[in-house]
Amino acid sequence: MRILRKMADMAANAKFRIKLLATYFLLVSFIILILGFAYYQISARNMLSNVRESLGNVLINNNQLLDEKLQAIRDKSEMLPIDNELYQMITEVDPSDNESLLKADRRITQILFQYFGGDTDIYASFILTPEYNFGNTARMFVMPEGFFKSSLYNKSLSGQGDLVWIPTYRYAETLGEKDMSNLSFEFSKLVSAVKLLNLTYIDEKGIFHTLPQTMTKPILMVNLTTDYVGRLFADYARKSEFHHLSYGIVDEDGTVVIDSDSNRVARREPPPWLDEAIKMKYGSIQKVIDGRSMLISFHRMQSTGWMSYIEIPVEDALQDLNALRLYSNLFLVVMLMVSILLAYVMSVFITKPISRIKKAMKLMERGNFHIHIPEHGRDEFGHLIHMFNHMNGRIQTLIEENYASRLREKEAELMALNLQLNPHFLYNTLTTLYWIALENNQREMSLIIHNLADMLQTSTRNKKETWPLRTDLDWLNKYIYIMSSRFENLFHVQIDVEEGLQDMEVPKLFLQPFVENAIIHGLVEKEHGGTIKIKGWKDGGMVLFSVADNGIGIGKDQIDNMKTGKVHSTGMPNVEKRIKLLYGPQYGFDIYSSEGSGTTIQIRMGMRPGHQDKTEIE
């Protein structure tokens, strides 16, 4: 609401020509933006549809190729359970005889090579029994003890003879090799397939044999690198025109098989849209991921049930629309320039009378009321100018009738207030002279009389209401000397006024009543150690003075009575009236005090007499 209010205020305070230009701008912009938005949305919808179709075709083709390769491995694995030679090797090997194990290992390795040796993408293949790991262990070795206690073995049992595909896993943790958990392996990222081998054998007599009940069935383990699975997607990403394309494969549990985002692989967290994709099996969805709108196409593999996907930012998919956006912006700029030109020509005819009235009002503000605007036409602007001229004539008449009498009244009031101070001061001075004559010799009396003569001479020569601050401080120093002679050792005065204020015009004797009250009332109970500090400084457009003492202070009730006039006082109220008359009603003085902690008087004045701040009326 506050922002709307500020915008409304800015609109209300704007020039009419600006409002007219803004109206044209908004009108033309609205039309162009609506048309551009509609065309952009239609184009974006068609382009996204084409991108979805293209990504879907890529996923289908890649999955078909992967399914063919993985199905070939599955078909080969189906032949192993009925391999007579493999049956004989497994059943005839003596686990306690190393020579028998080595002989069986060599032959089983050859058998595995016959089935899987032609596929260079297969990293390693084994047949594991609780006693031995048969196969080529040059690139990778799996401890039988750890394997038969791992989740890989349990998954092979759950397959009941079918080939079970297992996504990437942590080698050391899964196979129970805790001492190797901190080591790095070439085969740390593998995809494995395990199969429980229900070996059978048909002898020469046609008798069908199976493994003995007491014998643990061996497990086939085939390992593939993730490059084998993700090579097709990596090739497509490298050739693609999309700069921020990412891809991956996850199983139904959300385990990451491959992912182009290494951070997601490290976190091992599934994509946030996986549950929705599993229900759909294939297709595409649009989601906001990490604050970015993403287009996700996915397709389920037939061989493994895994979900392959490609993600691209929607802005990448719509990158060909940048040219359309550029042309729309250029068209908008041209139309805006034309509309601004038309608005300017129209504003010249509309705002010219308003500009005349505005210039006339500025001249009136400077005090020139002898203004007459030429009247042309009888429309609303002509009528407005006629009313302005009539109003200006009335104001000029009122000023001539009232201005002179008001000035004389103000001058008489200032003189009366000034005259109230002189008898009050003369009375205090005569009292001082009386006590000094009794208590001091004639030499000090002559100094006091000399200061008094200078003070009276300065006051009587200057008939104006104001004089320079330098003169007022000189007069005040002579007064302080007289009072310090009367109250010997009672107080001392510190004056600290900015040098730049010395020549400013101030009301005559405006500091004296406050200093007098500080001496007579504030320090009356002190025998010595009294301090009066007088300061003057600028604060923005104001000049501040303060008179502070360390006397007995004034209670809150007494301050309130002084402000309301219940306590009779002459000097201080007169000073405040003079300040308000000279500078304006917002100026004056404030009292800050509490009993026992001294009193501070702060006086607020303008920079120059007669220049009062204008009061705004809302």
Describe this structure in words.
This protein is α+β, with helices and mostly antiparallel strands. It has two domains: 56-317, Beta-Lactamase (2-Layer Sandwich), CATH 3.30.450; 402-606, Histidine kinase-like ATPase, C-terminal domain (Heat Shock Protein 90), CATH 3.30.565. It has helices spanning 2-13, 16-79, 84-92, 98-116, 144-147, 151-159, 171-174, 226-239, 262-267, 274-280, 314-317, 322-365, 380-439, 442-461, 469-486, 512-522, 556-564, 571-583, and strands at 122-128, 133-135, 164-166, 190-196, 200-202, 208-210, 219-225, 246-250, 256-259, 282-289, 292-300, 307-313, 466-468, 491-497, 505-507, 530-539, 542-549, 588-593, 599-606. Strands 2-1-7-4-3 form a five-stranded antiparallel sheet. It has a five-stranded antiparallel sheet with strand order 9-8-12-11-10. Helix 13 runs antiparallel to helix 14 (442-461). The protein is elongated.
In short:
The protein is of the alpha+beta class and 618 residues long.
Attribute tags:
five-stranded antiparallel sheet, 618 residues, alpha+beta, single chain, Heat Shock Protein 90, 18% strand
Strand sequence of the main sheet, in spatial order? 2-1-7-4-3
In whole angstroms, the N-to-C terminal distance is 20 Å
Specify Rg, calculated over alpha carbons: 52 Å
Strand content: 15-25%
Report the CATH topology name of the largest domain. Beta-Lactamase
Low-confidence stretches: 611-618
